[in-house]
Inverse folding.
């Protein structure tokens, strides 16, 4: 059992003790003191408190889980009502056994009882004669029934409310677990896609320049180290993501011709906020995959701004048509993944626009940080 669960159970027990003390035990003790320490008052009060507790916890721990929460409310209310009636008769029998005085005298305040005995010492209790009922005689039973019904309803309602809270908490935990699983799946999709494109680039470099291919492999090792050991630890500082994107761009630059204009603007000073790993990489991959041409002038422009409250990312590339067939092989999955990740991570706190024209492909992403 987790410490948080144990702590929650202890808090619930303490809350129950506090409620019973405030609403029942302390008021009874106060009335006992104000009545001149009348022991008969305690004899009548303590059994009722115990019966109230029995009614509450039977409804809370038995009737609510067994009937009320299983959509058998009519049967639950019937059993609860019969339970109250049964304990009311038990309370009446117990009180008559513990205190055999006439009912109206038990309920009468001590000062009134003393006054009545003082002025009517030998007259008995004519108002308690056969055929006559004292107006206070049945009031304790009525009070018990009313209070017992209220406590029954409170017990059922409290357990129902707690069940709603627990269901909501389990739903959120399930959603969170599902979110983590889907994010992990999406990230695992990105990694093979990224390595596939990068290895294709290095393959083409080996044919033209072994030295450039060696540099690319060195950059790739740095990227692999980040992917293997850092991205599994949750969100990362944006500085590490920027460094990762720079290393990736260095690999891509090794095979660019003079006809490609590359403009990279990363911030020099910025707050090192936390971001999900590999969130911006698919846009850069897509720009290098589709934005360069070896037959005509083309360009790629990448800009990023970072503040404590927002990240702005822009990536624009010319419609170059892509490079070699080997590099263009297979459908791209990176942009689909990043859309899903943004929807899962920042459902109401991001804005993504992607526009295609005859001359360029533009991506504008803004993320509002919590």
């Amino acid at each position: 059992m987790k410490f948080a669960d144990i702590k929650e159970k202890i808090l619930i027990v303490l809350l129950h003790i506090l409620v019973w003390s405030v609403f029942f035990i302390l008021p009874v003790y106060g009335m006992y003191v104000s009545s001149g320490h009348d022991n008969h008052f305690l004899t009548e009060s303590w059994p009722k408190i115990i019966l109230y507790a029995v009614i509450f916890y039977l409804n809370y721990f038995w009737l609510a889980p067994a009937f009320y929460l299983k959509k058998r409310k009519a049967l639950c209310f019937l059993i609860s009502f019969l339970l109250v009636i049964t304990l009311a008769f038990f309370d009446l029998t117990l009180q008559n056994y513990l205190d055999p005085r006439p009912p109206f005298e038990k309920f009468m305040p001590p000062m009134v009882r003393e006054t009545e005995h003082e002025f009517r010492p030998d007259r008995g209790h004519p108002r308690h004669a056969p055929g006559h009922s004292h107006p206070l005689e049945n009031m304790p039973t009525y009070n018990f029934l009313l209070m017992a019904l209220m406590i029954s309803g409170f017990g059922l309602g409290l357990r129902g409310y707690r069940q709603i809270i627990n269901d909501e908490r389990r739903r959120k935990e399930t959603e969170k677990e599902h979110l983590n699983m889907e994010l992990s799946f999406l990230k695992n999709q990105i990694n093979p896609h990224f390595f596939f494109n990068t290895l294709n680039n290095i393959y083409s470099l080996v044919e033209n320049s072994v030295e450039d291919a060696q540099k690319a492999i060195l950059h790739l090792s740095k990227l692999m180290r980040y992917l293997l050991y850092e991205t599994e630890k949750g969100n990362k500082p944006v500085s590490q993501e920027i460094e990762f994107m720079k290393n990736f761009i260095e690999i891509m630059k090794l095979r660019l011709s003079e006809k490609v204009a590359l403009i990279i603007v990363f911030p020099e000073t910025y707050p090192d906020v936390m971001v999900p790993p590999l969130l911006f990489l698919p846009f850069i991959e897509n720009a290098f995959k589709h934005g360069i041409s070896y037959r005509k002038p083309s360009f790629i422009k990448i800009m990023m701004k970072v503040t404590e409250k927002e990240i702005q990312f822009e990536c624009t590339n010319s419609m170059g048509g892509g490079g070699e067939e080997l590099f263009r092989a297979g459908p791209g999955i990176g942009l689909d993944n990043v859309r899903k990740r943004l929807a899962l991570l920042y459902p109401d706190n991001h804005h993504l626009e992607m526009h295609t024209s005859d001359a360029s492909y533009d991506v504008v992403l803004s993320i509002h940080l919590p």
